[in-house]
Amino acid sequence: MTQQPRALISIDGNDGIPIAPGEDIGDLKRRIEVAAVETRFVDFSTADGTQLSVLVSPYRRVSIAVILPREPPEPPLLVDFGHLPPDAMDF
Q1: Less Cβ around it within 10 Å: N or C end of the chain?
Q2: DSSP string, 3-28
Q3: In terms of pTM, does the model score above 0.90?
Q4: What pLDDT, in 10s, does the model give residues 43-79?
Q5: pLDDT at residue 63 in the model
Q6: Residue 31 forms part of a structural domain
Q7: Within the chain, what is the greatest distance between any pair of CA atoms?
Q8: In a domain, 33, yes or no
């Protein structure tokens, strides 16, 4: 099963809020950049479905972290030596 990247938004150093999986991160960043110049609200959805509006200004610090899913580790290679005679493994 392929996992989607997760994204967290942090505002003024507060703990990251999980962003909804369908949220366009590139568009959200552009809206934050515009709002940082003009001071305006930026709306987005959180992972639990909450609609959030954040007043962004030049004096607010907003960061977005995108967490990529890790690939599962390869299972260990198991070799069946059952077909060998018992003394084949004597060293």
Answers
A1: C
A2: PPPEEEEEETTPPPEEBPTTS-HHHH
A3: no
A4: 999 999 999 999 999 999 999 999 988 877 777 776 7
A5: 95
A6: yes
A7: 80
A8: yes
Distance CA 41, CA 83 (A): 70
By residue range, what is the domain housing residue 21?
6-69
Domain count, the chain: 1
Q: From CA 63, how far away is CA 59, in angstroms rounded?
A: 13
Find the helix or strand (DSSP H, E) in which 55 lies. strand 51-56
Contact predicate 53/31, CB 8 Å: no
Judge whether 1 and 15 are in contact, CB under 8 Å: no
Contact (CB, 8 A) for 5 and 70:
no
Residue 76 covered by a domain:
no
More confident: 61 or 5: 61
